[in-house]
Write a structure and sequence with these properties.
Layout lengths: L1 H10 L4 H10 L2 H19 L2 E4 L1 E6 L25 H13 L4 E6 L7 H14 L4 E5 L5 H10 L3 E3 L7 H7 L6 H14 L2 E8 L6 H14 L3 E6 L16 H14 L9 H6 L3 H7 L4 E2 L6 H4 L15 H14 L3 E3 L14 H4 L1
Parallel strand pairs: 1-8, 1-9, 2-3, 3-4, 4-5, 5-6, 6-7
Bound molecules: S-adenosyl-L-homocysteine (SAH).
The site of S-adenosyl-L-homocysteine (SAH) has 19 residues, from loops.
Length: about 350
């Protein structure tokens, strides 16, 4: 396994077969070996600086029916809510005062927010917070829609591909959704010039290590600026209620691999990782992640945006969330920074010399 990890470190990638071997065969010592390299790599690009993104979950209405997701349309137990533009702006104001310089607007696929409404929200944030990045995470849209949001001032877009294997995708989603369209959306976002975030759930139902290897190869090909992964966590009111959760070990190992594949990528230690283990986010950072995403949503709606059971931080004010994460990061030798935390291309890559 060490040889494969060394090769991954040297070449920023492996073949599908090699990834499968690594994912099937790694043990605790291999993890430690990988993390020493992935942590060193993150240090090289980011030092001990951790970027912060303020997450605003602005609507839990969703037209889709993904089998894993707690806010799926078919879950009639969800108490649905929508935040107004004023609500969202007041989340931003609170976040700005706390030192956040990226706002992530996430929601279900809620067509109540017409393009006109979204553009109004985006451009208002853009006008008020010129030194902040605006990230959208609102699902699949057309090229033209993505373009309009970009023109209104959005900088980044998170759209996890969920699984790169289309047959596996079809096991996680109803027929009206396809892996092909999801990937097409990601390529459109890239073409428009967004900083793009892809990613997948680890340990989702029916997932094999071959699927995970395909996820890694897809990411290698797409070259996203951001990569969000977290364990699948079951939600009691979904068709996947009875499936086991993804594991901490596999999620951390994949974070390590991703860090070596795309050394300068922005990789969050996600809330799902913090949910599966009390120190999950710290372990994520120590495996090579460099971003955290505290919640900025009003406390009154926090418990209503439940993608999975036992989600953490649903009772804390934004300031508490930020302080808690700041302390957690300090205890492991890292610090949160006040910075947009944009993706930075690698300037002095090894080809630069020859290009001159
Ligand atoms: N509607 C937006 C945002 C989705 S929620 C979109 O379509 O992109 C953000 C992410 O949460 C999803 O992409 C999915 O990977 C993750 N998620 C949803 N349900 C989950 C579950 N049960 N366990 C773990 N992660 C989940």
């Amino acid at each position: 396994m060490r040889k494969l990890i060394d090769k991954l470190y040297r070449e920023n990638g492996l073949s599908k077969e090699e990834f499968v071997t690594l994912l099937n065969g790694f043990g605790e010592e291999d993890s430690e070996y990988l993390f020493s390299k992935s942590r060193e790599t993150a240090h090289k690009y980011f030092g001990n600086r951790i970027y912060v993104r303020g997450l605003i979950e602005f609507s839990n209405y969703c037209k889709n029916n993904c089998y894993y997701c707690g806010i799926r349309n078919g879950n009639l137990k969800v108490d649905r809510y929508r935040l107004s533009k004023e609500d969202i702006l007041s989340c931003c104001a609170q976040g700005y005062a706390l030192g956040f310089r990226t706002f992530v607007l996430q929601s279900g696929e809620d067509s109540w927010y017409s393009d006109e409404k979204l553009i109004d929200i985006i451009s208002s944030i853009r006008e008020t917070y010129q030194d902040c990045a605006i990230t959208l995470s609102i699902g699949e849209k057309t090229y033209e829609q993505y373009k309009k949001y970009k023109d209104a001032g959005a900088d980044r877009y998170l759209l996890r591909h969920e699984t790169a294997n289309e047959m596996h995708y079809a096991k996680l989603h109803p027929d009206n959704l396809s892996g092909r369209n999801r990937k097409e959306c990601l390529y459109n976002l890239k073409k428009i010039g967004y900083q793009v975030g892809a990613g997948f759930m680890v340990g989702s139902p029916y997932q094999t290590t071959e699927h995970l290897a395909e996820d890694l190869l897809f990411i290698k090909e797409l070259q996203p600026e951001m990569i969000g992964i977290g364990p699948f966590l079951s939600h009691k009111d979904t068709p996947f209620a009875k499936f086991p959760n993804g594991t901490l070990e596999m999620t951390l190992f994949l974070i390590g691999i991703l860090r070596l594949m795309i050394p300068n990528a922005l990789i969050p230690a996600t809330t799902a990782l913090g949910t599966i283990h009390p120190k999950g986010r710290e372990l994520g950072i120590l495996a090579g992640a460099n971003v955290v995403m505290p919640n900025l949503s009003p406390v009154s709606v926090r418990k209503k945006y439940l993608l999975y059971d036992n989600k953490i931080c649903t009772g804390d004010e934004a300031a508490e969330c930020k302080n808690c994460l700041q302390n957690r990061m300090q205890r492991i030798g890292y610090q949160l920074v006040v910075d947009r935390g944009d993706f930075q291309p690698i300037k002095n890559n090894r080809y630069a010399f020859y290009a001159k």
